[in-house]
From TrEMBL:
InterPro entries: CRR_secretory_protein, GNK2, GNK2_sf. Residues 31-139 form the Gnk2-homologous domain. PROSITE patterns: GNK2. It is found in: Secreted. Keywords: Repeat, Secreted, Signal. This is Gnk2-homologous domain-containing protein.
């Protein structure tokens, strides 16, 4: 299809999705074109406690991305930081505005971060509809 073009760019702080392909709006989540990246550093201490705290914080951020503005449902972006023992945990979640079910996409991505028992100090899941990321260092500009 020479005139139907699209692309996605994942940055550290967000992602950009551009397409000329006419799709049904809102767009169903594409769970096939999602991949994960992990920080190479292992977690010190109780990895299960760490994973639980990260999941709780990402779930908390997920609740902040959906908003209704003047009767229009808008899906955006949420980021933050949280004290985690001696460290700070930095995280972000994002959906494209056209996604049918942002919350489900983010919940699936959060579970994907911890599907194996090799818990890392940072990770991200990148997809065409949504993305999540956490690290023990600030990766966002304030």
């Amino acid at each position: 299809c020479p005139k139907n073009k699209g692309g996605i760019i994942w940055y550290d702080q967000c992602f950009l999705y551009v397409t000329t392909i006419k799709e049904e709006i809102p767009i169903k989540t594409n769970y096939e074109n999602i991949f994960s990246m992990y920080n190479s550093n292992n977690v010190r201490g109780d990895v299960h406690f760490f994973a639980k705290r990260v999941m709780d914080f990402l779930s908390e951020l997920t609740l902040k991305v959906e908003k209704t503005i003047k009767g229009v449902h808008v899906i955006l972006y949420a980021a933050g930081e949280k004290k985690l023992g001696k460290n700070k945990l930095y995280a972000m979640v994002q959906c494209i505005q056209l996604t049918l079910d942002c919350k489900s996409c983010l919940e699936w991505s959060i579970k994907e971060l911890f599907k194996n028992s090799d818990i890392k100090q940072g990770a991200r899941v990148l997809g065409t509809n949504c993305g999540v990321r956490y690290e023990l260092y600030p990766f966002l500009r304030s």
